[in-house]
Inverse folding.
């Protein structure tokens, strides 16, 4: 018997069915070792020696693997086909060597791009050894990230309190978001007018034409800049005669795009389905690892971390067969389509993301999948099928029209398209493409050259130029990919890190840099400019690719980087904090000192009139204060604009006055405490306080919101049956409604302030119908569901007599002390349940996946 090691238990379960009783498939649960989060884990003075540590759960799993290997004939490492997968196999092998579990047993490495029986069996028939250059590239990347983080962080803590840490790639992504915000702040809107004419042909068919030239001058977008200009042109066109100068119909072809890579899948899922990058990858992971389709477990898509756009020849043949079957022979090109990747070293998994079996159509799979899984599978299937279909044939018609009124003249243009053959569009269209080509996709009526047109109406519309849009997760990933920064396996973690550290917030899918994020970005640009340059970071990524290709020695790359980086850090250590602050004052002037409407000095202190405002550093981070401190105690939070009279109401130590309570006349203040920001009414021990709920930031708290928080719990109304009051509030587990001891969760914080009596009664009734909590003898109702366990059955989060826990079947696993039940993830829950089962709490099972 051979032992096979994979990352996740879901993958292990599927593969075990394919391999049979001669194999024992075990899961590593992702990475089994990591660099300890302390100084000295990577030691440049010892030629970059690295110390690895194994955490408690991983230690238990490695012991199980070692025990199984000692009784086995050999070891097969079958982790994912990318750098991270290669690294996990290497770590497992290194630990087993340390445990002396291998002796002289054979060790092999197999990779498969899809979890299907054929793919797995083919991989088993073609084993290899661990790819040393791939491991070296992983070690170099891990060491670089560690050295940047653990060398820069102490500098940040001393020079820029409030900044948690900086990362090698995350800092560049943060710079992109911050630079875009600065562009928006600098942007000056310009007014412009567009003029269209609604015209009719002699056959009474109406269409629209847009003004393109006036009085012999070709018009640019901003040329009509005032209402007076627009009115003059409208008056001229109102009395003009219109004649068709030319009609040109030009056939064009639109070719399909390649199948999805990691980044293009995330972009398409965002624009078509509204999924965030993390959500997309979670669903794709499930589709890859295996789904029960009528008693058979199979992976439905190929590996989803890839920058390759090509697909296997046998998959192309299968796609072509499905096209002929589902769409007809006229949709099938004479020859297969082949695509080449833009990446210089597409190392990440080689094949694009595609269905493992094209005959499994989205309609057939829908009944086996959850709603979001079905939607993502359909997107992948359609894009993959479309990539092998005929081009769309489109006839683009351009009509040029002359308008003449006495000695004045104008030119107008109407554009439209007719799809003569839909080709790949029969399978797949992208929302982004549809939006971009909306105008050209209009269909025009029959228009003949030389004929006179009737004027129905002239329509002027006023516009203003728009600033560049803020990044979404999808467009930021696209930009990083264009710059050559990051790789498929890192995009999601980059975004998550920025959000977790509160450097950015996501609102309506747009990324907004927080004040602390912009401060950090400005600091790095001012004093570590080279290390947040796009070209420098991209060139370092290229070197990592060359390491994985066996062209560079990994420690040589580390030596070159460390020599210059450590010198830069040593230089900044000598800087005085006042020098740092003055540089940031200048870099972030639009944010810190916005221009005043009266044109006066934006840095003048509004309280004392003689001091200058400047950044200050306190234990809770940066704020704006007066240079005359302590004589002048004026302060305001970073990013807060002054109020109407030029003075931001504030107290010393960064405490901000938001206004007065209308009933008690006490100050309502915003403060920082050891557990985060909160609002307070009045002073002293009896003052009422309320913490800011999850999702609320200090930048968005105003007088009205503070009063609402301090008014909780709020009476919703009396229950129509019991006559007892229903209240709404925010508790340990989030927003809720309460009636006679029964709590029911609300979807979001805003519901606390707006929920009415009818919905509150319904929620209470639903909660009561699910059964009462443990103290009444029943099973506590679920706070939330986390999804299907790899072994079947639902995983739920519940609250019992002794605190919150996760449940699967008959197994209950208590959450760690201080863990918020609302934040428990699927992977964390499965790992906790597996530990509990291993201790005798029930049948052991596993389910944690690599993120």
């Amino acid at each position: 018997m051979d032992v096979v090691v994979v990352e996740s238990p879901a993958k292990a379960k599927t593969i075990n069915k394919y391999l049979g009783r001669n194999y024992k498939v075990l899961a590593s649960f992702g990475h089994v070792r990591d660099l300890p989060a302390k100084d000295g884990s990577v030691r440049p003075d010892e030629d970059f020696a690295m110390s690895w540590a194994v955490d408690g759960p991983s230690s238990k799993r490695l012991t199980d693997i070692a025990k199984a290997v000692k009784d086995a004939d050999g070891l097969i490492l079958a982790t994912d086909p990318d750098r991270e997968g290669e690294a996990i196999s290497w770590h497992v092998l290194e630990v087993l060597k340390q445990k002396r579990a291998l002796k002289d047993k054979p060790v092999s490495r197999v990779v498969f791009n899809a979890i299907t029986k054929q793919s797995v069996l083919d991989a088993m028939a073609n084993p290899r050894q661990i790819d040393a250059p791939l491991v070296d590239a992983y070690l170099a990347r891990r060491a670089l990230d560690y050295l940047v983080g653990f060398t820069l962080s102490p500098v940040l803590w001393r020079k820029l309190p409030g900044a948690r840490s900086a990362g090698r790639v995350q800092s560049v992504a943060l710079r992109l978001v911050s630079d875009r915000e600065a562009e928006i702040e600098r942007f000056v809107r310009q007014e412009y007018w567009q003029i269209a004419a609604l015209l009719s042909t002699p056959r009474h068919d109406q269409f629209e034409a847009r003004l393109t030239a006036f009085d012999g001058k070709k018009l640019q977008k901003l040329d009509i800049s005032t209402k007076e200009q627009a009115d003059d042109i409208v008056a001229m066109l109102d009395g003009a005669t219109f004649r068709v100068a030319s009609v040109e119909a030009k056939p064009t072809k639109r070719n399909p795009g390649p199948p999805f890579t990691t980044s293009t899948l995330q972009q398409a899922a965002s624009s078509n389905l509204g999924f965030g990058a993390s959500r997309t990858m979670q669903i794709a992971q499930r589709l890859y690892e295996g789904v029960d389709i009528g008693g058979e477990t199979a992976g439905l898509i190929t590996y989803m971390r890839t920058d390759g756009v090509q697909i296997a020849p046998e998959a192309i043949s299968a796609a072509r067969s499905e096209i002929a079957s589902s769409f007809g022979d006229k949709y099938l090109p004479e020859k297969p389509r082949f695509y080449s990747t833009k990446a210089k070293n597409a190392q990440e998994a080689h094949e694009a993301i595609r269905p493992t079996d094209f005959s499994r159509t989205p309609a057939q799979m829908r009944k086996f999948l959850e709603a979001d899984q079905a939607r993502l599978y359909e997107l992948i299937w359609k894009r993959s099928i479309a990539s092998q279909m005929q081009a769309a044939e489109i006839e683009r018609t351009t009509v040029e029209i002359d308008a003449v009124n006495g000695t004045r003249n104008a030119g107008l243009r109407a554009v439209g398209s007719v799809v003569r053959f839909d080709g790949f569009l029969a399978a797949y269209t992208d929302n982004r493409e549809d939006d971009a080509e909306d105008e050209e996709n209009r269909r025009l009526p029959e228009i003949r050259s030389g004929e006179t047109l009737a004027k129905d109406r002239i329509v002027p519309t006023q516009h203003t130029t728009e600033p560049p849009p803020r990044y979404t997760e999808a467009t930021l990933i696209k930009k990083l990919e264009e710059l050559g920064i990051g790789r498929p396996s890192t995009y999601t973690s980059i975004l998550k890190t920025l959000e977790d550290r509160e450097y950015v917030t996501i609102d309506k899918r747009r990324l907004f840099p927080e004040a602390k994020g912009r401060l950090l970005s400005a600091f790095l640009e001012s004093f570590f400019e080279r290390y947040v340059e796009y070209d420098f970071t991209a060139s370092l990524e290229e070197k990592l690719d060359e390491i994985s290709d066996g062209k560079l020695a990994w420690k040589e790359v580390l030596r070159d980087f460390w020599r210059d980086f450590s010198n830069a850090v040593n230089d900044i250590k000598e800087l005085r904090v006042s020098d740092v602050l003055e540089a940031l004052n200048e870099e972030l002037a639009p944010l810190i000192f916005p221009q005043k409407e009266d044109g006066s000095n934006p840095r003048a202190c509004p309280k004392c009139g003689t001091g200058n405002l400047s950044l200050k550093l306190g234990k809770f981070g940066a704020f704006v204060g007066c240079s005359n401190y302590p004589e002048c105690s004026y302060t305001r939070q970073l990013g807060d604009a002054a109020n109407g009279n030029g003075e931001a109401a504030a107290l010393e130590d960064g405490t901000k006055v938001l206004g007065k309570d209308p009933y008690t006349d006490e100050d309502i203040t915003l403060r920082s405490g050891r557990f985060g920001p909160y609002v307070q009414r009045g002073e002293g021990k009896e003052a009422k306080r309320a913490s800011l709920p999850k999702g609320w930031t200090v930048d968005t708290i105003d007088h009205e919101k503070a009063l609402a928080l301090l008014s909780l719990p709020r009476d919703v109304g009396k229950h129509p049956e019991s006559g007892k009051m229903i209240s709404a509030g925010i508790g340990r587990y989030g927003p809720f409604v309460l009636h006679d001891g029964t709590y029911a969760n609300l979807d979001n914080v805003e519901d606390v302030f707006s929920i009415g009596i009818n919905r509150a009664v319904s929620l209470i009734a639903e909660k009561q119908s699910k059964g009462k909590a443990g103290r009444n003898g029943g099973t506590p109702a679920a706070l939330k569901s986390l999804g299907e366990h790899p072994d079947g059955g639902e995983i739920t989060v519940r609250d019992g007599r002794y605190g919150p826990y996760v449940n699967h079947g008959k197994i209950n696993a208590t959450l760690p002390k201080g863990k918020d039940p609302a934040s428990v993830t699927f992977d964390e829950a499965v790992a906790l349940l597996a530990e509990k089962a291993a201790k005798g709490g029930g049948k052991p099972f596993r389910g944690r996946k690599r993120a």
